[in-house]
Structures
1.
Amino acid sequence: MPRTGRLPSGGLRLTVERRGGTALIELSWPDGGEIFFVVDGERSVGIMAFDESDESHREPRAYVVPRPYGWSMDVTDEDLLLAVWQIMGEQR
């Protein structure tokens, strides 16, 4: 069952659906949104991201990285989103 919550800042809405070692994260705001699909492997983490609101770049982004030290998907929805952003930021 997905959990939906409002983040402290305005119209941001976060929905996270977890199944085993996967998570579907949807972050939406009034003008668009971004979707992340996260797969937690034994030695790596895979992330597929797509920014629905970016008309200039209509392509998904894919990341497969060595599993970060201390990585866990057993965290709050907000902390999981922050961890995903951190991985994506380090790979750019």
Note: The radius of gyration is 13 Å.
2.
Amino acid sequence: MPNNCRAAALHENAPPVAHAGRWAPLLCAQFLRSGGPESVVLSAESGVNSAEKVGYMRGVVYSPLPYVAAFVAVTLLSTGHAQNVESSAACSEGTEPLMLNYGDHTTGCAISPAVDVDTFTFEGSAGDNIRIAGDNTGGPFDPGLELVDPGGSTIANAGCSGGCCGGVHCSFVLNTTLTVSGTYTLILSDSGTDEAGGLGIQIDRIPPLIPAPVLNYNSSSTDAIDPAIDMDFYKFQGVEGTRIRISVQNRGGPFDPRLRILDPRGLIIEEGSCDGGCCGGVDCGFTMDKILEATGTYYLLISDAGSDESGGYVISLQCLVGRCEIPARIPGDCNEDNTLDLSDAVCIFGVLFLGTPSAFPCGNGLPGDAGNISLLDWQPDGRVDISDGIGLLDFLFLGGPPHPLASSSEPRTTGIVFPNCP
């Protein structure tokens, strides 16, 4: 485990349900591999039989408290199942560089005076495909971006022109693949060092590390791209040879929705968009048909075609021909990657206590949903709570019992159909 990742140990005589502490090093390392925080702290009082909160904290020093049972949370969120959750980071000149996580967009940032420079950092891993979008917020300001690798070398540049004489709104997008792991730096300034103005930045990993909302066959979702540099993600399970249809419509305004389909290999296999016009805009929509060429998890990426206009949209996914039935799921597979491993325990704890991921995979995404109880209730007590994450960890690493609905022969790999979790 990296030296800057610390987690408290649990006293061996603590109550059984409180044995989350023995998994602290594994969970901490997993959060780091997922682009998470540098420190995870597990703390609670002796005898506590349920978690209070889960939290990410930076720079926390190891503290071997005797009875440690639950994560300490910084943020608790509750959201709907089929929508994207937006996360933001507020700029402050006194706290630069500002740390960003994948999925963040900035607020309140500005280059002022014209000779000012703003800096941001993020943790990246070798092989991450990332998208960095930026824009000015009016005026003739020309935002310029430098992407600096962990060794201090500039590896990519991007920017746009805000024009003159009052200026125009402009935006840019940088897509690149990281080659080394470590802390990357974003340097933002005015390209000519002669104009001041506001700016925004959003950084995404494609596909995202945080589980995206599930869009099931024959269903739709309504959401919005806001700010203009935003990108929304959905995912669905597809079977080779199945013909699908995806329809997208903007919800007024000049917003120009663009959709990209990412296959299980991470390749963009189809793209479509429509023009919402200008000067108040018009309604527009488009439809894409595709025969799937592989079985696995597909992602849908939605953004504004120019990353310079925001607006609402509705998207629908239809199965036309082929394997349109409810897919089988592996009991306990919280992050829906068709594999039962440590990341599923992290997913359970994250939804319960962090709001990251934002929702469980079934129904309305909440712990009390019948589908989520069927899929994730490892300790069958009619609810999804910390004991289920701990039960999964015990099964994976200590020879504990499998999920009560799991296959007796291959509980890690055999899926079953959950009618209440399509």
Note: The first helix runs from residue 24 to 33.
3.
Amino acid sequence: MSPNLDTLRDILLDLVNDPDMKPSDMDGRPGKETKCNLAVNRICQAFGIFCFQGKLANDIVGMLKDELEGWSEVKASQAAAHAMTGGLAIAARKGLGHGHVAVIWPAALVMSGTFGKKVPWVANVGKDCGIMKMSMAFSAKKGEPSYWNYRG
């Protein structure tokens, strides 16, 4: 199933505004855990994609880089264009300890002073949840994420 553009926006807005997606203590250790992996899994399930269930962000990035069926690595502009048709696109970056993943919000690229170029918008679930520039969700110190389109 592929949601249409309005449905995709509604699903993403519900996700970033869901209180259960805010960082919380999930493991009993000090600090709050973020839930980007759970958010991406939830969106993927709306598209009938269940392979990310129970996976952490680094696992998801690894699966995408291992040429997971239906996914292709693309440029930022291609990810944004795909999302604007109601398609599923993900920004993903592996990290030490844990990485980060976010679904591309369907909108035109926007200038980022941090990265010095135009970047996509993302529906981010992490330390901060909301619709934001990719540069607000992914630290420039760690580099730009890779982008992935799902074509089924």
Note: The mean pLDDT is 93.
